[in-house]
Amino acid sequence: MKKVYIAMSADLIHHGHLNVIEEGRKLGEVIIGLHTDDVISEYWRTPLLSYNERKVIVENIKGVSEVVPQDELDQVANLLKIKPDYVVHGDDWKEGLQKNLRERVIETLKQWGGELVEVKYTDGVSISKLDETINLIGTTPANRMKKLKKLIGSKPVVRIMEAHNGLTGLIAEKTKIEKDGKIKEFDGMWISSLCDSTAKGKPDIELVDLTSRLNTINDILEVTTKPIILDGDTGGKIEHFVYTVKTLERLGVSAIIIEDKVGLKKNSLFGTDVEQTQDTIENFCDKIRSGRAARVTNDFMIIARIESLILKAGMDDAIARAKAYVEAGADGIMIHSQQKDGKEIVEFLSIFNQFEKKVPVVVVPTSYSHMTEKELYEAGASVVIYANHLIRSAYPAMVNTAKSILENDRALEAKEYCMPIKEILTLIPGGK
Length: 432
Ligand code: SPV
Ligand code: MG
Description:
The chain has 17 helices and 17 strands. By secondary structure, it is an alpha/beta fold. It has 3 domains: 3-127, Rossmann fold (3-Layer(aba) Sandwich), CATH 3.40.50.620; 138-387, Alpha-Beta Barrel (TIM Barrel), CATH 3.20.20.60; 393-426, no CATH class. Helix 12 packs parallel to helix 13 (315-328) and helix 13 (315-328) packs across helix 14. 37% of the residues are buried.
């Protein structure tokens, strides 16, 4: 019996998969190379079903003899092991994302006279369309909330984008690119105090109260499905913080990050230019413990943000606080810095990651924006937040438009800063 190798993710099985397997069955014994969870997370998104769940499904498809893990998107390692007579694949990989992978398969098969058989792509099925359909169904608060922990557990680095209203929520939810054979997108949203305040025309000093912030959160919840991390400022008084935790958990927000400052909070990126007071370790640990006691499930994460480097209190203080906050039960640590070279962040991570008791570390590379996600991951970070970039990019475009209209007594010249009317009318589906 000839050996036939077919690689797939099979996270959403459709008749296109069955067609390919049926063609393979005509050629011989079908071995499925099933992408592992890491492979799917790397090139696409967190799988809906785990490897073992997908394996059971695929094993039970008529014509499948064996399912083996494929732990790279590239089939070559498995092909060298199995040396199949045929590889069967849909013919939709000749261009785009998978073109190189196809060429490598053809080259490898040549070594033992194997053959690539391409099955005409099944019309009317598209994984990305199915994905969109699933997103249209929406989510529930519990499902959305759980997603963040799941992502942190399954991806090298979780990529979070700032959102401050429904529209920026949609940008974080839907923006996708194809690069180096992978689909890249954001994993969730950060509701920044700076951007939420700025969007409301107010300073970032905890002036925008929880009720107002909940309006922003609700606008974003309504039109997105990805997990949300709330910038909770100092968390306020402990007696208030416990209510905040319950409210956010009920809504399906995944995490709150609170910073260890007291008094009139100002934005961290002022550094020591403004007066700011750090909380005592004791008090802040109490806040963490109270928050933990208030939540209903441990799917909701309470992340402790350390301001020692911002306030020039030193690395030792940052490390001592990290230890204490983890002991107090913080589900994650955010370490902040406004140094441009990123060195103190790397130093903190190298010390923190030697701790016996570790939790995921969140970083916000606004000042050290030259550092890539890969570099931050290699340094030991788990979550990277792009904390303010959508509002910072929108503002100059809006001011340019306003100035251009004043300059020219008409709107014609502002056209270059504006999207076409046709596009804005159809940007949000359902308006027609
Ligand atoms: C925010 O985005 O509001 C933050 C991060 O707290 S930073 O502005 O860098 O302090
Ligand atoms: Mg903030």
